[in-house]
Design brief:
Pathway: Lipid metabolism; fatty acid biosynthesis. Its EC number is 2.3.1.179. GO terms for molecular function: 3-oxoacyl-[acyl-carrier-protein] synthase activity. This protein is 33% helix and 18% strand. With 414 residues, it is of the alpha/beta class. The strands form three sheets. The chain has a ten-stranded mixed β-sheet, sandwiched between helices. Strands 2-3 form a two-stranded antiparallel ribbon. Helix 3 crosses helix 6. The radius of gyration is 20 Å and the shape is globular. 59% of the residues are buried.
Length: 414
């Protein structure tokens, strides 16, 4: 069985806005959501900037008695899922067959804040003072679990924990579940809340982060010769995927069709991409094959584009390998230049961006691209949005450990 799958709802929680309109308008305007960290004292750290969500109130979405038993990443997941369901016009609690609605939420780290807080309690106050919900709050699968409990979805449930590919894998896996008939509706995406002393400190120790602390808005600069690392972000992006006939029968508004999904492994290094982007190239090629599309049918790529020296160059090489001469005709952008890198949630938020690109005919820019790296010589939509009809979008996510995932969305033509 191979059924067509469409996108009928989307929701976001990001440093650039909590509604689709606010988020999209900020991106198109080239606004950065990166600033100095306020959630804790970051002054001792080499990097003191991030894309924090500074106005998130979980009590707007979750009863206080429940939200206090949830890590921030789960709160963000539930909030974004609630928005996506509202956008899709789906009331899951009144749905006649909740066992046909599934959930997959990806996260690279999970309950990082809870882990750090409770380890301090353990060492300073002793084991008897640990929160009884320490483990249920912290474990990475609880984003999916909480979304399931809050929506009443009783169908297939899973969690992807594939580092920075987690959100993309969650959507791709959900796509395949519907395609093969295991569910009619999937709530899927990613959530991450790792802007914490431990999260920041770990990436600082790895020397992976930008240290452009005096210019936060200009720190994330994918494909620019002056880039010196990525900028952490937090947030959540969620999509409602539905089997096409199911969506049509209930009169749903359809944003786009999910066309293809590819995965691959680098089998190379814990943190560095495979030489020449070999694994990334195979991943994109697999997505095209799954979609039964030629490379020339794609007009836009939402790049992984983290603003790291090795990553941006190898992704550029991989795109050239897959798309050949058409690579120079593509519009490409890294929206991480504005959102920061949301780790396990990045691919989900970028899937939302990819779908909005199809529906609005506007391509978000790569900001801060002032002097392109000579080895990054494609069209990265530098600094200003472009009006352009787009019929097919490919979005990339590549994670530590050599995890690669790509999705293709195409215009819905009824």
């Amino acid at each position: 069985m191979s059924r067509r799958v469409v996108v009928t709802g989307m929701g976001v929680c990001t440093s650039l806005g909590h509604t689709l309109d606010d988020f999209w308008n900020s991106l198109i305007a080239g606004k950065s959501g990166i600033s100095r960290i306020e959630g804790f004292d970051a002054s001792p750290f080499p990097t003191r900037i991030a894309a924090e969500i500074k106005d998130f109130d979980p009590d707007q979405y979750i009863e206080k008695k429940d939200s206090r038993l949830m890590d921030r990443f789960s709160q963000l997941a539930v909030a974004a899922a609630s928005k996506a369901l509202k956008d899709a016009g789906l009331n899951t609690h009144d749905y006649e067959r909740p066992e046909r609605i599934g959930v997959i939420v990806g996260s690279g780290v999970g309950g990082n804040n809870t882990w750090e807080e409770q380890i301090i309690v353990l060492h300073e106050r002793g084991v008897r003072q640990l929160n009884p919900y320490f483990i249920p709050m912290m474990i990475v699968n609880m984003g999916s679990g909480q979304v399931s409990m809050f929506t009443g979805a009783k169908g297939p449930i899973s969690t992807t924990a594939t580092a920075c590919a987690s959100g993309t894998n969650a959507i791709g896996d959900a796509f395949k579940l519907i395609q093969r008939g295991a569910a009619d509706v999937m709530i899927c995406g990613g959530a991450e809340a790792s802007v914490s002393p431990g999260g920041l400190g770990g990436f600082c120790a790895l020397r992976a982060l930008s240290v452009r602390n005096d210019e936060p808005e200009r720190a994330s600069r994918p494909f620019d010769i002056g880039r010196n690392g990525f900028v952490m972000g937090e947030g959540s992006g969620m999509l409602i995927l539905e089997e096409m006939d199911h969506a049509i029968a209930r009169g749903a508004r359809i944003y786009a069709e999910v066309a293809g999904y590819g995965m691959s492994a680098d089998a190379y290094n814990m943190t560095l991409p495979a030489p020449e982007g070999e694994g990334a190239a195979r991943c994109m090629a697999e997505a095209l094959k799954d979609a039964a599309m030629g490379a020339e049918q794609v007009q836009y790529i939402n790049a992984h584009g983290t603003s790291t020296p090795a990553g941006d160059r190898t992704e550029t090489t991989a795109i050239k390998t897959v798309f050949g001469s058409h690579a120079h005709e593509l519009f490409i952008s890294s929206t991480k230049s504005m959102t920061g890198h949301l780790l396990g949630a990045a691919g989900a938020v970028e899937a939302v961006i990819s779908v909005l690109t199809l529906t609005t005919g506007r391509i978000a820019p790569t900001i801060n691209l002032e002097e392109p790296d000579p080895q990054c010589d494609l069209n990265y939509t530098a600094n200003a949005a472009v009006e352009r009809r787009v019929d097919a979008v490919l979005t990339n996510s590549f994670g530590f450990g050599g995890f690669n995932a790509s999705l293709i969305f195409k215009r819905w033509n009824g």
